[in-house]
Amino acid sequence: MKSPIISRRGLIQTGLLGLGGLALPLNALSQSNASIVIVGGGFGGASAGRTLKDLLPSAEITLIEANANYTACPFSNLVIATERPLSAQEFSYDRLQAAGISIISARATSVDASGQIVELQDGSQVPYDRLILSPGVDMRWGALEGYSQEAAERHPHAWKAGAQTQLLRDQLVALEDGENVVMTVPPAPYRCPPGPYERASMIAHYLKTNRPRSKLIILDAKDSFSKMALFQEAWAEHYPDHLEWRGALDDGAVSRVDANLKTVYTDFDELSAAVINVIPPQKAGQIADAAGVSDQTGWCPIDPLSFESKLQPKVHVIGDATIAAPMPKSAFSANLQAKVCAFAVARLLSDLEPIATTLANTCYSYTTPDEAISIAGVYSNVGGQLSSVSGAGGVSPLNGDKAVRQAEAAQAAHWFQTITNEAFG
Amino acid sequence: MPNQRAWSVLGSLSLLGLAACGGADGPQQSQNVEQSTGKASLLATACSGCHSDVSTGIASLQGYSVEALQLSLSNYKSDAEGTTVMHRLARGYSETDIALISQYLGAEDLE
Description:
A: alpha/beta; FAD/NAD(P)-binding domain; 2 domains; five-stranded parallel beta sheet; 13 helices; 26 strands; B: mainly alpha; Cytochrome Bc1 Complex, Chain D, domain 2; 6 helices; globular
């Protein structure tokens, strides 16, 4: 289904047309005709599409996604460390299509929220009754002096999985023993709060194993980070000679990058390295700006009951692009927000009010290729805001023995299989 | 059950006793949505982010009675010394939530 023109196939397939439209009450007819358009085929968008197709089998569900395949970020740090092939991160939309979801392989460029129309790059228009945006993040080009899209081709961010992941992996493999790697970490919020530190662990593991005279230096704009004590415990145990972390108080905040000189600058220091991995400041994916659902922060305020935008009616936003703190910008969050949003959209299209629930998040991070640590959180969405349920959540125990870390690594692998299956399988 | 999706979908259908139901008329479909998107299914949809129909690193929730699930979740919640992900998560759910989730996921026969 490549045509942006909404077809009647869904109706015909479910046999509703065969029942005879005249026999159906008006509200059921409008419900079965509902067009739900989703922009962005990551964990959020794909999960939303599948859930909606389950809940409203006769609705017309359309997913607009520019890329033919999805390349998942979770576990991509293992790819960088050569512990996993990039192909293990790639997922097609074939199963979504087989489930009756129309896939439009195109870039959505704008949204007319009052006219309820999404416009595509080729100028064609896709009308909707409800729109769900799951645009992920875009880099805030220009926020870090000297780090442009062109610079990213030489000094990868690898904060969107795919070619950037491969580039960083290739650069790591090409490193001469004794040459160093620098990683820069932006201020919060950004996609996957513990991600930089898992990546640091994986790069340090690679260096320790393959380039023992080399070292990773992390320049961080923050003084504390997710699972900090656990990561530092693991680093002291496994990578005392291969990883150095500098927080903001230790002049870690990077203010400028010179791509030609392979140098990054802090307030008082400059560091040159053979490999520079710049994780730049981020914002909601571009379509959020075009749709008018992002605010001055660059992220999207939402009603946590339905994930409907606070700025545009009938437009919902899920995943990394949202302001959903204390829920982190994670694949687990995107998947669960997608399901909660889909339930709410199904209710709204059936003249039912969305209802409050309890949400959760779990994030695993590898510290070695066979050991992991985790953070969990539980959240309520009552009273117009998301808030952490007190007494719940938290991180893995400190001083956990190897069996505990290995068990969480096995859980992480199982989680990845489950959540990618729920979204794409 | 071939995969996780079939499990979650059939789980919700079997709760409603609608496994054989195809197209529906308006009021019934609206009622279906009311139940399939109600409190219990909304709470339980968090579980399928990690739990599938196979047990490798994480246990499958299939084949457990309502009582067994409820006891297990309550034990996770009340075990103050527990450090696993499930201990940390269960502490965020009320006993009422746990009962609803257990009744939803503990559907006796998924057919």
